[in-house]
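Consortium newsletter contribution from the modelling node. Members have asked for a concrete example of what our holo predictions look like. Here is one, prepared for the coenzyme A complex that several groups have been discussing at recent meetings.
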Amino acid sequence: MTKEIKISKDIVIRHIKLSDSQVFFDSEQDQDAKKNFMRTPISVEVVKEDTKNEMKEYEKDKPSSEKFTILYKGNIVGWININQLNNPHFEHRAKIDFCLHQDFRKKGIMLEVLKKVSSYAFEKYKLKRLEMWTRTFNKAVSKLGEKAGFEFEGILRKNKCKNGKYLDDVILAIVK
Ligand SMILES: CC(C)(COP(=O)(O)OP(=O)(O)OC[C@H]1O[C@@H](n2cnc3c(N)ncnc32)[C@H](O)[C@@H]1OP(=O)(O)O)[C@@H](O)C(=O)NCCC(=O)NCCS
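And here is the predicted structure:
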């Protein structure tokens, strides 16, 4: 069943559909998104495969993720994903990721979405801990997270390796 949640007059989120793949692809092609994510999809076909797999999670009793499409004034503008759910011994914990198409950034959309989806995730999955990771240079995400109630917990040094370069990660979390 496709779930839809109204967040404000202009913002709605709903479960992802295959037809959202083009916008998901476009959203990750600008320099800021490319710099932040570990992998940039090289084609819409790649995104469609990912989307198909992510949609299968809706059918499971214990999904490993729940991903939503974000709509602003009726336009598909990005996505938000509750992931790393139901890992053995970490069932109380999840991670959240998101991306907005560059034409719709800095309008306060993700702040509203993030607050709502965080509350939804705690309630639905009975979480005690919700994490957000980002690269240290991504000040937008750190500030956004703090505004949404996530607390800075620390830096994981040389946590990732991208194109031969080691990257530090910031971790923010809400703990209940
Ligand atoms: C990060 C991102 C999701 C922010 O979404 P957004 O809808 O533009 O954010 P909002 O407009 O809701 O901003 C909320 C707060 O976040 C902070 N913020 C957002 N964009 C910022 C930027 N470019 N620089 C600094 N702070 C920023 C601000 O504190 C802002 O509040 P303010 O406007 O009162 O100052 C968006 O820039 C994006 O999709 N970036 C590329 C992908 C990415 O980095 N994804 C994160 C993966 S972990």
